[in-house]
Amino acid sequence: MVKSSLSPLLTTMIQDLGLEMPQPPVSVMGRGELSSRFPVTEVATASLATAGCALRALLSRPDTPLYIDQRLASYWFSASHYPVNRPPAALWDEFAGDYATRDGWIRLYTNAPHHRQAMESVLGVSKDKTALAQRVSARGKTELEAAIVAAGGCAAAMLTHDEWLKHPHGKTVAAEPLFWQQFHAEAPRTTLALPPARPLAGIRVLDLTRIIAGPAATRFLAGLGAQVLRLDPPEWEEPTLAEEITLGKKCARIDLRSAAGREQFKILLADADVLVHGYRADALESLGFDTETLQAISPGLVDVSLNAWGWRGPWRNRRGFDSLVQMSSGIAEAGMRWKKAGRPYPLPVQALDHATGYLIAAAVLKGLNVRHVQNQGYSARLSLARTAALLMSHPAGEQSELAAIGPHDFQPGMEWSAFGLGNRLKFPLRLAGTQVLWATPPVPLGSAAAAWG
Q1: DSSP 3-state assignment of 346?
Q2: 8-88+174-310+350-431 domain in CATH 3.20.20.140?
Q3: What are the sequence ranges of the domains in the chain?
Q4: How many whole angstroms separate alpha carbon 14 and alpha carbon 92?
Q5: Contact 368, 302 (CB under 8 A)
Q6: Which are the contacts of 412, defined by CB distance < 8 A and separation ≥ 6?
Q7: How far is CA 12 from the centre of its chain?
Q8: What pLDDT, in 10s, does the model give residues 41-68?
């Protein structure tokens, strides 16, 4: 089944990014939707379509047919890689999850060792999740959230949507644009080749992102031919995600807190076309890399960044992740009432991460167009919290069950990497004449030198 689509979500995304409305409309294929209180499959389809429309604009091919498979899009918002003859990586630390407090619910995020240590500095070391639940049950949700955050950890008390809209930070998020955009001074003319088969061939992308949203964006850019160099701090690992999101990239390490690391970063940045970063709001600025400095080092730079909670307000520098934003924004509580469940009921996938990721990619593609046509640098800022606001502002329509993944849904060749053998789903976006293909398999973090080439 193929239907032409210009859904309300897609219309909002395209208008907020400042693209022309697609003519012809996007063609949506496939059947079924993820079961949710909110239109998760629609936001998956719309965010991918927005990236596709930005790609059409960059290639000056507005009439080229663009297809999105909504069923595959739904599955890509969960996982695209399926290991063969080995179990998939565990997604959560043993203590991560939702816990009942004396006055509601709280979610504890403990996937990174330092986040778990911060939680344990407040709640003590527990032998198992049951013991931790007993400790949490004696605390108030807001007081416990504040204590863990103050200790450098990650937690979110469950709020209703109305409570979030009255919250000092929730008010700020509601007033922010989906895409905050800025155009910079005229830069030296750069001619982009933009071959339709591999549109981003020759484009260098410096990737300073972690945990799904940013890595999903740069994975898509790599699939269009970009040279993506991901930089992680020393010792940082993502064992649950590396095989999923390092496809097509080189992964190196750099310590931006050291003088030597900052000098190396300047060298890499000077030769970069795009910078995508996911640090907290003032992190790069505090290291000496504000917007003006970035543009001075790399004139005409396309600089796109994200964070969890947005760019203004009291939580702008708070650590956050998709599951925490769902708790604070009212998504988990609304799902609980919709499902008539006795505990928080989040989205079926981490849709805020993945949708924001494809919107980041769309912003990068628009920025390259600005650079190509107007010879200007470009910046954009996005957040998971603002994506959550967009999702919650649209009702879910009728939902039918998604057909299970079968052999016909995988790419023709199996994927072999340092992690082992696996299958990768076919990509849900198809633009006539342009394929999303990755030149290299996924790699471990820190497996390459911090250098181009």
Answers
A1: coil
A2: no
A3: 8-88+174-310+350-431
A4: 34
A5: yes
A6: none
A7: 18
A8: 999 999 999 999 999 999 999 999 999 9
